[in-house]
Automatic annotation (TrEMBL):
InterPro entries: AAA+_ATPase, ABC_ATPase_HisP-typ, ABC_transporter-like_ATP-bd, ABC_transporter-like_CS, MetN_ABC_transporter-like, P-loop_NTPase. Belongs to the ABC transporter superfamily. This is Amino acid ABC transporter ATP-binding protein. It is found in: Cell membrane. One of its GO terms (molecular function) is ABC-type amino acid transporter activity. Pfam families: ABC_tran. GO terms for cellular component: plasma membrane. Gene3D superfamilies: P-loop containing nucleotide triphosphate hydrolases.
Amino acid sequence: MALLQVKDIKKTFGDNEVLKGVSIEVNKGDVVSVLGPSGSGKTTLLRCINFLEKADGGRFVFDGREYDLSDISKRDIAAIRKKTGFVFQNYNLFANKTVIQNVTLGLTSARKIHSKEADAIAIDVLTKVGMESFKDYYPSQLSGGQQQRVAIARALATKPEILYFDEPTSALDPQLTAEVLEVMRNLASEGMTMIVVTHEMGFARDVSSHVIFMADGNIVEEGPAKEFFTAPKQARTKEFLRLTE
Ligand code: ADP
C-alpha cells in the first residue's frame, strides 16, 4: 500500500488555476523529484500537501487514513505533521538560536522530549549531515549550504516517515549545492522517503526513483527516473529536457 496518495488536488489563486487536479502516489522508500518550468505549480503542490496552503479540493491518503484536503481539521493536520518533515528553500532557521537549539526546539516544545534526550537526538542528526562540530554556532556564522544541512537535520530529528524538500538548493552556489545534494543522496540510500521539488536534473536523474513532470498545473508525464530521462514520451517533456541539458 502507498505511504501517501494525493487524489485530484485542486488549487486556485484568484482566477489563476494553479493545480488542475493532480494525483500522485508515493511508496515507502521512493524518492520522487518534481520537475517542471517555473510557475507550473510544483511548490504549490508541496505546500498544499503539507497544509501550508489550503487546497480547494482533493483527497489525501496517508498512513492508511483518508482525508478531504479542503476540509481537514487542525487536529488531523497536527497529527500528520508529526510524521512529516519540510525543508524550505531559504532554510527558515531561527537566527537567534544556535544550531543545536534550532534542532532541539521542535523536540522539547512540541513533543515534550526531555532536553537531555533532545540534545542526544540533535547530535545524532547533526552528525548525519556533517554539522555536529558547528552545534554552538548561530545561523549567520554559517554558509547557506551549512544552514540548509542544519535545516535537514532539524527535519530529521522528529523521525519523519516522509520528507518534503522545496527547491532546497536554489539559493546556493554550485559548490554549496553539491554538499546539500550529497546529504540528500545519503538519505535516499538509507531508504528515506522524499518528495523533492528541484531544478537539479543530475539529482533527479541519479538519485530519484520517480520523476513527476508538471506544466500548467497538470502532470504531463511521470515514471521511473531512468525511463523519464532516457525515453521521455511527451513532446513537452522532450522540450524541457532539451532546454535543461
Ligand atoms: P513552481 O513551483 O512550479 O514555480 P508555484 O507553485 O510557485 O510554481 O506557482 C504556480 C503559480 O501560482 C504561479 O503563477 C504563482 O504566481 C501562483 N502562486 C503561487 N503562490 C501564490 C500565492 N500565495 N498567491 C497567489 N498566487 C500564487
